[in-house]
Amino acid sequence: MGKTISIIGSGFSALSASCYLAQAGHDVSIYEKNGTVGGRARQLEKDGFVFDIGPSWYWMPDIFEKFFNDFGKSTSDYYQLDKLSPAYKIFFSDEVITIGDHMDQICEEFERIESGSSKPLRKFISQAQEHYDIAINKVVLKPGISPFELVTKETVTRVDRFFKTISSEVRKNFKNPKLISTLEFPVLFLGAKPSQTPSFYSFMNFADFGLGTWHPKGGMYEIIKAMKALAESLGVRINTDCNVEMINVENGKASGIIANGENIKSDVVLSGADYHHSETLLDQKYRQYSEAYWEKRTFAPSSLLFYVGFDKKLKDIEHHNLFFDTNFETHAENIYDDPQWPENPLFYVNFPSVTDKTMAPDGCETGFFLIPIAPGLEDTPELREQYFDIIISRFENLTNQKVQSNILFKESFCVNDFVSEYNSYKGNAYGMANTLMQTAFLRPKLKSKKVDSLYFTGQLTVPGPGVPPSLISGKLVAELINKKEK
Ligand SMILES: Cc1cc2nc3c(=O)[nH]c(=O)nc-3n(C[C@H](O)[C@H](O)[C@H](O)COP(=O)(O)OP(=O)(O)OC[C@H]3O[C@@H](n4cnc5c(N)ncnc54)[C@H](O)[C@@H]3O)c2cc1C
Questions:
Q1: What are the Amine oxidase domain coordinates in residue numbering (predicted)?
Q2: Are residues 440 and 150 in contact, defined by beta-carbon separation less than 8 angstroms?
């Protein structure tokens, strides 16, 4: 028989779970503190400029497709997906590397930088594809309950790849520092340094070079709109501006929530808010993980973000642009080893209006600037300004154009906003990193060990950070609820 289920939050994982649970016949309601759904993936619209506030890289299109297929739908029922060509550009201090939309082009670019490098590249990507097939079809679809989930015929024969790092694997095959940075970039999405990330995670390189970079016309928020429409069509009730203040527990079992002061009863509670925050909604005795536990985890970075409207079209840029003209190692140390504001940050900029006219007024450009920083850093208006000045000057020099006098407006978002908008632990942007010791069954659990009928989903639990993993997380927790809550 269907249960009543209260879901906290409306990010990708919560929306995904809500669809699977409603499809299974449960009576599902979402309670979201903000005025719009989507969590970290909300949208900012200003004077005809459209910004995705959070995620902008659409990778692993197969996972999005599988999600909608599970409901007899396709992505194309909801949005138009275009493959970006080129996928992106990387600016180094003395050179630009352009990543094309298929392997032959990418190999040519590698050969231009380092003669003979296309051969090891093809081998590396072919192994990355093998990892992708194992990870996506075998490993990632497990709920992270037992270590034995990781033991498959395929993983046992490749166990060394969990203990070698992506960094050592890349350096074994490539000598040119620019190619090394190019190949280490994709695993940054997993939230840790490449030297802390198992080489098995090279499946991200296959996602990058093998599957390509895509763009939903209108921006990433189109996916959220699609999932909201799907959820509502399945009967999910979505309540926005509805802050959850407490998870109620009776006789060791979750019995509902208090939202905007109102007591709401349900058979099951599922939280898609940041795991750490979700546990603070419980009395101390019901929390599974101590403050010391969270303190010891490796968190993915926070970010300083700028959403900028330009009154002209910019030149020599692509939809996605990485600025790797400073030392990657030093910046990484400032994020993970010795948390502080980086002196010479690497940064990333996207201009969705380069390929999608709907995202800026005619003759204008929508610009999103991102500097990854350590979570928990001091965040002041002065620091934000100081860093904007640094990166906009570097942007002008590296792209050979003046743009500062063409800025119509600029909004920023940083650590304090991540905390106030999303109740994010230390203002993290991308959740908890996927290191060897924070993989699968070693991550915070989908089901509470202390409170019956209480579950968690999202980027701090399995499988990890990113939009595709969040979609999978929602599916995994829904399957677990269906199994456990008879
Ligand atoms: C700047 C940035 C760039 C990124 N870039 C990419 C990218 O390019 N590609 C990619 O794949 N991933 C990217 N990511 C990661 C991706 O966005 C996240 O992994 C994903 O959106 C996380 O979804 P979630 O379901 O875990 O939670 P969230 O999106 O964090 O949703 C949690 C929700 O819970 C709500 N909530 C919190 N507390 C309460 C409460 N007490 N009551 C009610 N509601 C509450 C919050 O308001 C929020 O809506 C990026 C993230 C950021 C921030």
A1: 15-481
A2: yes
pLDDT, tens digit (0-9, with 9 covering 90-100), for 134-163? 988 888 888 888 887 777 777 777 777 777
Which tens digit of pLDDT belongs to each residue from 327-375?
989 999 999 999 999 999 999 999 999 999 999 999 999 999 999 999 9
Among candidate residues 222, 375, 301, 266, the one with its CA nearest the CA of residue 8: 266
Structure tokens, 37: 């759904």
Give the atom of ligand 1 at the shortest distance from the alpha carbon of 9.
34
Residue of 40, 260, 369 to mutate, ligand 1, most atoms within 8 A of C-beta: 40
Model confidence at 93, in pLDDT bands (50, 70, 90)? very high
User: Which of 140, 467, 472, 473 to probe ligand 1 with, by most ligand atoms within 8 A of CB?
Assistant: 467
- Phi then psi dihedrals of residue 76, to 5 deg: -70, -15
The two structure tokens encoding residue 245: 């203040």
Q: How far apart are CA 155 and CA 202, in angstroms?
A: 14
Is a pLDDT exceeding 90 seen at residue 434?
no
The three-class DSSP label of residue 90 is strand
Is 4-42+57-76+218-296+434-484 assigned to CATH 3.50.50.60? yes
In the chain, domain spans: 4-42+57-76+218-296+434-484, 102-208
Adjacent-strand bridge partners of 348: 322, 370
* Residue 466 in this model has a pLDDT that exceeds 90: yes
Which residue, chain included where needed, has tokens 């695993």?
Answer: 187
Q: Using N-to-C axis directions, what is the helix angle for 467-484 and 61-69, rounded to 10°?
A: 30
CATH no. for 102-208: 1.10.405
- Can 4-42+57-76+218-296+434-484 and 102-208 be said to share one CATH topology? no
Catalogue the E-assigned strands of 311-464.
320-323, 347-350, 365-373, 407-413, 454-456
What's the DSSP call for residue 202? Answer: G
